[in-house]
TrEMBL record:
Name by which UniProt lists this protein: ABC transporter ATP-binding protein
One protein family per Pfam: ABC_tran
Annotated TM spans: none
Annotated family: Belongs to the ABC transporter superfamily.
Residue span, ABC transporter domain: 4-227
Signal peptide: none
GO MF annotations in UniProt: ATP binding
CDD domains noted in UniProt: ABC_NrtD_SsuB_transporters
Native source organism of the sequence: Marinobacter azerbaijanicus
Keywords: ATP-binding, Nucleotide-binding, Transport
Native organism taxonomy: Bacteria, Pseudomonadati, Pseudomonadota, Gammaproteobacteria, Pseudomonadales
Nucleotide-binding among keywords: yes
PROSITE patterns per UniProt: ABC_TRANSPORTER_1, ABC_TRANSPORTER_2
Length: 227
């Protein structure tokens, strides 16, 4: 069944130079368990789209439906979000960072710790639960952010160039790890990147966006054998 549906989604920004169409009547749908990448040049509206999907931004027209319901505000129980930089809290340990969204919704502390620990193990950081972000590498910080994105067990992961800041080797490893997590957890993933190769390697469908104004110009179904 369909978990994400984007219908005629448009976003206009008003600037001093006048109105600017960042997205123009975008439509697409993502099936449960799908791994869809969105690729496109800088400025085509990828981040705008992600913010609309998370409910952080309001569309000018059109709508985003998650499980058939229009998104009007962030839905952390349904969508986990990950950005280019890991945005961890520097004074908290890896475990505390991962558990943080649970503390915000009043979950039991002991239970939250155990859940955070399990997720850190899942992303290969079982030996680093007490490290603070500054004591971890870029790739490790990004893995902590992935664990945090999973902590409330959302069915959907929205990722905005999550590996862009990493060196190529680490990015490759993170891609492999994400595929593994996807296969283990059967989440629906929307992955934004500007790298076409990475998109084709990782996802089952690639939506290519063009600019001026932002719209989908091509849909590439990928049928690669999975590791
Ligand atoms: P991408 O993520 O693909 O690089 P963005 O969604 O960040 O694209 O931006 C799409 C376009 O909208 C760009 O031309 C950008 O300059 C413009 N834009 C983004 N945010 C704003 C804003 N708050 N106000 C005005 N223009 C914006
Ligand atoms: P760029 O964003 O610089 O255009 P790409 O994402 O297209 O880079 O990737 C550059 C090279 O790195 C490609 O040859 C690709 O095979 C490899 N690569 C990068 N990231 C991954 C990944 N996550 N999984 C597999 N291969 C990757």
């Amino acid at each position: 069944s369909e978990v994400i549906r984007v219908e005629n989604l448009s976003k206009m920004y008003s600037t001093r130079e006048g109105d600017f169409h960042a997205l123009d009547k975008l439509s697409f749908a993502i099936e449960e368990g799908g791994f869809v990448s969105i690729v496109g040049p800088s400025g085509c509206g990828k981040s705008t789209l992600l913010q609309l999907l998370t409910g952080l931004l309001e569309p000018t027209s059109g709508q985003v439906l998650i499980d058939g319901i229009e998104v009007r505000k962030p839905l952390p129980e349904k969508t986990g979000v990950m950005f280019q930089d890991a945005t961890l809290l520097p004074w908290l340990t890896a475990e505390e960072n991962v558990a943080f969204p649970l503390s915000l919704c009043g979950k039991d502390k002991k239970e939250s710790q155990l859940r955070a620990r399990d997720l850190l193990k899942l992303v290969g950081l079982g030996d680093f639960i007490n490290h603070r972000p500054a004591e971890l590498s870029g790739g490790m910080r990004q893995r902590v952010a992935i664990a945090r994105g999973l902590v409330r067990d959302p069915r959907i992961l929205l990722m905005d160039e999550p590996f862009a800041a990493l060196d190529e080797q680490t990015r490759f490893k993170m891609g492999e790890e994400l595929l593994w997590i996807w296969q283990e957890t059967r989440k629906t993933i929307l992955f934004i990147t500007h790298g076409l190769t990475e998109a084709i390697y990782l996802s089952d469908t690639v939506l290519v966006m063009g600019t001026k104004p932002g719209r989908i110009i091509e849909v590439i179904p990928v049928d690669l054998p999975r590791p």
